[in-house]
Write a structure and sequence with these properties.
459 residues; DNAb Helicase, Chain A; Rossmann fold; 9-stranded mixed sheet; 47% helix; globular; disordered C terminus
């Protein structure tokens, strides 16, 4: 069974190569990937690239572009382009585009149905299979006939409605609980995706837990996907924050003072009341996470979760031959899941180790590991930086002779004291506003956050 209309593809390509203005009539409907014949898809993409640059796309001008294409050579070479152009009917191009898109949808649906049946026959969990099906369906090509533009009047009306709602305080934005950060990002809206990234030991998990803890204790339901830590480790970290006791002490409580142990017990009882559910590490692909978050919502009373935290994104399992392809799919899936579940998602990200070899170790977007898709899909990209960590490991600077003087030790101690217990929360991407740095108090042993008296610093 085939789902293709090769004649329609030939007719459309011929129309575009005959009259390049035809491209504007169909570019909102199809892309090269929608053609059943791979050669036709390459021809369309090459023509689109030439036209978008203001160059002519014709059988003659595209001859060199396709000179080394083996598939074209097998069916007659450049003469094939000339035959398509000679038989073209420009006036019917948009109808041809709709036929091609419909065939692409049918092929995609057929593949989705086969994949779904295969996963069910292999004993896959019905909830995860269902979510996988929904995600696959949401990636289908847009149906022909959809609006390709909206009037400025309707756009302004929608924007005004949102502004009035915000003015009245009727927004569903979720606050992080860190005031200096909230002043920059203004809160997280349903569908938003925020990356929290940082080098090792910078406190990114602590920051995510602080936000999750604040949400869970102010009435919001939190689903926390813990792909790196066990649920016991996560609970211990949350208790350390609440009790203001060092996390390391809670891992070995038999050596704790009686008063501290009592504080731990009291804090653990309070933490247990938080509106949070932990999704364990064996739930690690997008459809399974989606299904688990929906189930979490049922236990929250409201029927849905209000925040999803993923620790961390690069541990989510994705399909694809290369690591790049897998993580690109994961990034797209996380953003897609935020929209489908109508909640904000905080995804933690690891950074490249190269950051440790730079003089200025403050992270940038290009430091995110695996794929640039994380940067593209994120609404916010927030980086944790602790100069204290790097200074402690660097030590006093040696002079040109390799000696460490007393003055160097004094200077090092002064520099270290100036950044003691400080974290810079650097907002490198903010789709809805400005870029700035929130400098906050952070006590690493207890993972406790607080506001500093110093103002936030724009960069």
């Amino acid at each position: 069974m085939t789902f293709a209309n090769i004649e329609a593809e030939q007719a459309l390509l011929g129309a575009v190569l005959t009259d390049n203005q035809t491209f504007a009539l169909v570019s909102d409907i199809i892309k090269g990937e929608h053609f059943a014949e791979p050669l036709h898809g390459r021809i369309y993409d090459l023509a689109a690239a030439r036209i978008s640059k203001g160059h002519l796309a014709s059988p003659v001008t595209m001859k060199l572009d396709l000179e080394g294409d083996a598939a074209l050579r097998e069916i007659g070479g450049p003469a094939y382009l000339a035959r398509m152009a000679g038989a073209a009917t420009v006036s019917s191009a948009r109808e041809y585009a709709k036929i091609i898109l419909e065939a692409a949808c049918r092929r995609a649906l057929h593949g989705i149905a086969q994949d779904t049946a295969s996963r069910l026959s292999e004993g896959g969990d019905s909830g995860a299979v269902k979510m996988g099906l929904l995600h696959a369906l949401s990636r289908l090509p847009e149906a022909a006939g959809e609006e390709s533009s909206y009037s400025l009047m309707s756009a302004v009306a929608d924007a005004a409605k949102q502004a009035v709602s915000a003015y009245r305080g009727d927004t569903s934005f979720l606050k992080t609980g860190i005031e200096s950060l909230d002043r920059i990002i203004k809160g997280l809206a349903p569908g938003d995706c925020m990356l929290v990234a940082g080098a090792t030991s910078m406190g990114k998990t602590s920051l995510a837990l602080e936000i999750a803890r604040h949400a869970a204790f102010t009435g919001s339901g939190v689903a926390f996907v813990s792909l790196e830590m066990t649920r016991q480790e996560l609970a211990t970290r949350l208790t350390a924050q609440a009790a203001r006791l060092p996390y390391a002490d809670l891992r070995d409580p038999e050596k704790m003072a009686e008063g501290d142990f009592r504080k731990w017990i009291e804090a653990s009882q309070k933490v247990a009341q938080g509106k949070m559910r932990i999704i364990p590490r064996h739930v690690r692909d997008i459809p399974a996470i989606h299904s688990a978050v929906q189930k979490c919502g049922m236990s929250f009373g409201s029927g849905k979760a209000d925040l999803l935290v993923i620790d961390y994104a690069q541990l989510v399992r994705g399909s694809g031959k290369s690591r790049y392809e897998q993580m690109t799919e994961v990034s797209i899936g996380i953003k897609q899941m935020a929209g489908m579940l109508e909640l904000p998602v905080i995804a933690l990200c690891q950074l490249s180790r190269d950051i440790g070899h730079r003089d200025d170790k403050r992270p940038h977007l290009f430091d995110i590991k695996e794929t640039g898709q994380f940067e593209n899909d994120a609404d916010f990209a927030v980086f944790c930086h602790r100069e204290e960590y790097w200074l402690e490991r660097q030590g006093p600077k040696a002079n040109l002779k390799g000696d460490i003087t007393e003055q160097a030790k004094i200077d090092w101690k002064a520099d270290l004291e100036a950044v003691r217990n400080k974290m810079e929360i650097i907002v490198r991407k903010n789709r809805h506003g400005r870029l700035a740095t929130a400098e906050v108090f952070f006590h690493a042993p207890t993972m406790r956050f607080a506001e500093l008296k110093t103002p936030e610093m724009d960069f």
